[in-house]
Design a protein that fits this description.
Strand order of the largest sheet: 3-2-1-4-5-6-7
Number of domains: 1
Number of strands: 7
Number of helices: 8
Distance between the termini: 40 Å
Radius of gyration: 17 Å
Helix content: 40-55%
Largest sheet: 7 strands, parallel
Length: 246
């Protein structure tokens, strides 16, 4: 119960990595606001933890939507101890072909959305004198790949935003760190693993010989939110099994 009595807000918290982080936080004793544009099947999680799960619709590209989200968390439980800024999108496209609308969507969600989320939560955390902010990047922030210009650029920017935020907010009692997962057995990663020809090419890039699981990545988010990381600030925690990249 490393997060007992803590209140966490997770954007993109109704499926994928965000959902896995929510489930792990609940197992560790936290109350969780799962925020996203769509609820999906979050009612199942709310039924399992009726007093500790809220769903709130949010658009991370709009600061006023995030301000309402943080206010809802405070109204429900009186404080915000942890923010996981997880919401993100990806559009493939080489730099000479990437549609401007796709580039703008990635910047608006992956970068602006993290900044607006951080800013909306930081005010509450500074007032209470404590808090943990976990941004979410990717191994693609530091390992380039064809067609990943927009995604890689926005995730690299998130890591720099994290470091700057850490030195600015640390003296005010708020620690800011970043979780950077590698290829996970979900979504696109699951599709890659299901294709024998493609998987054989990718498998050689994994020093552990496999993709990671959502729960393995979520454990990193627990560490960055709990007292075990009390002297960690401005750090990018890579959870990628020792990813090799040619």
């Amino acid at each position: 119960m490393r997060l007992k009595d803590k209140v966490a807000v997770i954007t993109g918290g109704t499926r994928g990595l965000g959902r896995a982080v929510a489930e792990r936080y609940l197992d560790e004793g936290a109350a969780v606001v799962c925020a996203a544009r769509h609820s999906y099947d979050i009612d199942k999680l709310a039924a399992e933890f009726p007093d500790r799960v809220l769903y709130r619709e949010v658009d991370v590209t709009r600061p006023e939507s995030l301000n309402r989200l943080m206010a809802a968390a405070v109204d429900a439980w009186g404080r915000i101890d942890v923010l996981v800024a997880n919401a993100g999108v990806s559009h493939d496209g080489k730099v000479d072909r990437l549609a401007p609308r796709d580039w703008e969507d990635m910047v608006a969600t992956n970068l602006n959305g993290v900044f607006y989320s951080l800013q909306a939560a930081a005010g509450h955390m500074v007032r209470q004198g404590s808090g943990r902010i976990v941004t979410v990047s990717s191994s693609m922030a530091t390992r380039v790949a064809i067609g990943a210009a927009g995604y890689s650029a926005t995730k690299a920017a998130v890591e720099t935003l994290t470091r700057v935020s850490a030195i600015e907010l640390g003296p005010k009692g708020v620690q800011v760190n970043c979780l950077a997962p590698g290829v996970l057995d979900d979504g696109m990663g699951r599709e890659v693993a299901a294709n024998p020809r493609i998987w054989e090419a990718y498998r050689k890039r994994f020093s552990l010989g496999r993709a990671g699981t959502l729960d393995e990545a979520a454990q990193g988010a627990v560490f960055l939110a709990c007292d075990e990381s009390s002297y960690v600030n401005g750090h990018v925690l890579e959870v990628n099994g020792g990813l090799l990249w040619a």
